[in-house]
Amino acid sequence: MASGTFVDAAAAGMGAASAHAATDTATAANASSASDWRQPLSPLHRAYFAFVAGFAAWVGLWGTLLPQRVAMALPWPLPPLHARVIGAMYLSGLVLMAACWRRQWVHEVAVGLRMATVWTGMLLLASLLHLGQFDAANPRVWFWFFAYITFPLGGAWLAWRDRAALAAAAAASAASAASAASAAAGAAAPAPRWMSASLLVLGASFCVLAALLFLAPQMMQAAWPWKASVLLIQIYAGPCLSLGIGGLLLARPRHAVEIGSTAAGMAALVELVLLMSVLHRGLFDMSGLAAQLWFTLLALAGAALLAVLASRLRVAPGAAT
Question: What DSSP assignment string belongs to 127-193?
Fold first, then answer.
C-alpha cells in the first residue's frame, strides 16, 4: 500500500517535471521565434554608412571650419554663409550615418538609409539640371558625380534588398508588441501621441518646403532670407526632403525603434544650421518676414526634435533608440 503510494507520488512528480520542462521549452521556442525575424546589418550596410559618413565629414568640416576654402571639398567656391549652412547639413549627415553604423539590425536603420538615399538622389537631380555650372577640368567635379551616382543607387539597392526583412520585422512587431519576447527582441517603446504628431507635422512641413525649393526655385530664390543661386536653392531641397520623409516615416509605429538615433541626425541638421545662421546674423534683414520666419521655424523645429530625442533617451538610458 505504502509502496503503491510512493510510486504514484513519484509518477506525479515526474509528470509535473515533464510539464514544467515542456512549458520552459515552449517559452524558449517562442522567444527564439520572436527574435528570428531580426536580420543583422551586413558588411555592405556598414561600408555604405562609413563611405557616406566619410564624405559628409570631409565636406562638413571644410564648410563649417574653413568656409573660405570650401572649394577644397566642393566643385565650386561658396560665400561663407552658404558654405557653413551646407557644411552644417553635411555634419548632420555624418551624425545620422554614424548612428546607423552603430546599430545592429536591418530594421533599426530603415529610415536612416532612406533618408540618405533621398538626400543624395536629390543632389544628383539638382546637379544634372545645372551641368553648365560644373567645370569638367576640376577633379572634385568627377568625385562629386561619382559620389552622387553611387550613394543613391547603393542606398536604393540596399533598401530593395532589405524589403523582406523589414516586412518580417513589421509583422513580428505587430503580432507581439506587448509580449516579453518582443521586448527581448529589441522592440522600442511606442511613441506617445505628441511625439508622433510632432514628427508628422515636421515631416509634412519639410516635404512641402522641399517641393517648393525644387519645383519653384525662382520663387523661392526671391523669398530666400539671403542671396542664393537657383542651383543652391535646388540643392537645399535635398536635405529638406530627406528631413521631411524621415519625420513622416518615424511617425509610423513600425519605426518606433529608430526614432532616437534618427532624430539625433535630424536635430543636428536643424540646430547646426541655426547656429551657422546666428554666426552670420549680420547678413539677415531681421526686419523682414523671411528672416523672422527662418529663425523662428528653425528654433521651433530644433526644440521639437530635441524634445523627441530627450524623451527617447529617457525611455532607454544610454542608448538612442
Answer: HHHTGGGS-TT-HHHHHHHHHHHHHHHHHHHHHHHTHHHHHHHHHHHHHSTTSHHHHHTTPPPPPPH
Alpha-carbon distance values, 238 to 152, 233, 283, 285, 310 (Å): 12, 10, 24, 26, 26
Give the predicted TM-score (pTM) of the model: 0.84
Measured CA distances, 167 to 110, 172, 195 (Å): 11, 9, 24
CB contact at 8 A, 252 and 199: no
Q: CA angle, corner 48, sides to 150 and 96, nearest 5? A: 110
Asked if 241 and 203 count as a contact pair (C-beta separation under 8 A), the reply is no
Residues 178-211 as b/e (b if ≥16 CB within 10 A, e otherwise) read eeebbeebbbbeebeeebbebbeebbebbbebbe
List the grid coordinates of 186: 529589441
* Alpha-carbon distance values, 194 to 64, 261, 265 (Å): 33, 18, 20
Look at the block and give the residue holding cell 536629390.
122
d(CA 201, CA 247): 8
Nearest to 41, CA basis, from 103, 113, 87 = 103
Instruction: Give the dihedral of Cα atoms 65, 114, 123, 69; nearest 10 deg.
Output: 10
Cross-strand pairs, 105: 40
pLDDT by residue, tens only, the chain of 321 residues: 444 544 454 444 445 444 444 444 444 444 444 446 789 999 999 999 999 999 999 999 999 999 999 999 999 999 999 999 999 999 999 999 999 999 999 999 999 999 999 999 999 999 999 999 999 999 999 999 999 999 999 999 999 999 988 888 778 766 655 554 444 444 556 789 999 999 999 999 999 999 999 999 999 999 999 999 999 999 999 999 999 999 999 999 889 899 989 999 999 999 999 999 999 999 999 999 999 999 999 999 999 999 999 998 876 544 455
